[in-house]
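Let us practice reading a record.
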Amino acid sequence: MADSGLKKHRIIRKGVQAGWGILSNAHFKGFLTASIYKGPLKNFCVPGMNCYSCPGALGACPIGAMQSVFDARKRKFAFYVVGYLAAIGLLVGRFICGWLCLFGLIEELLYMIPTPKIRIPEKADKALRYLKYVFLLLFVFGLPFFYRTELGTGDPFFCKYICPVGTLEAGLPLVLLDSSLKAAIGALFRWKVFILIGCILASIFIYRPFCKYVCPLGAFYSLFQKVSLLKMSFDENACVHCGTCARTCKMNVDPVKSPNSAECIRCGECVKACPKNALRFNTQSG
């Protein structure tokens, strides 16, 4: 029963991920005309990673929105964006990563390709997890805020030089749709494509490597994981310590030891896999 429930849960979750991806990129005209939607919805950020410049994107990317404020000649901190993301984090933690991130879904689908999988050694994995906080502090906040170009403006470092989501959702579609952009391809675009290819290849062998080691949005939401309204509770009396939940978790989290780990994307698979219902999500303070 647990196995069938887990399979059904996975199908439902992937359906939600795909549905949200389609809904948040429903400007289908953009894919036909190589244009970017600039209507009133673009004043609002979607909760997950989704490139502003994607031809289908209806909302703004939260990471891009934070950095765009720093493009002004006067240094201004993106309080409204940070406050909006903090509110989401305080409500659900990294639930967004597990249920409403299109790029996360793409990584998961790539991982389903039948190949030998790579398990990063525990010590190396723990060290690499801190990289996403470096990307958040340095490339999202630090460099865009303090660095200035010759024109006196900031540079959206993460979006411009690193983000594979933007390359996949915006860079490649726009270049393929607009012949004039093909002639303008330079070293930066080739670098971004190189990063995207690396991310795609890594995703085939490692479960959600971008989410684990790079994503600054996941890093930001993880700061609220232990204090968010939505929490995972563990019933020690019901647990038989079979280890099923830890084996099920592809984010390498042991829910028994750390049910609200910063690395948990709250996909809920461990909850469904537990044969004794010792794990559950709730909104209790404890």
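A brief commentary: The chain is about 55% helix and 5% strand.
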